[in-house]
Amino acid sequence: MQTLVLCKPDAVRRNLIGEIIR
Questions:
Q1: Can you give the pTM of this predicted structure?
Q2: Spans of the chain below 50 pLDDT
């Protein structure tokens, strides 16, 4: 998952982090 987040842009990364926090 970390590799995917790193590969994806900041916007997508923030979206994923927000979803996880939620």
A1: 0.33
A2: none
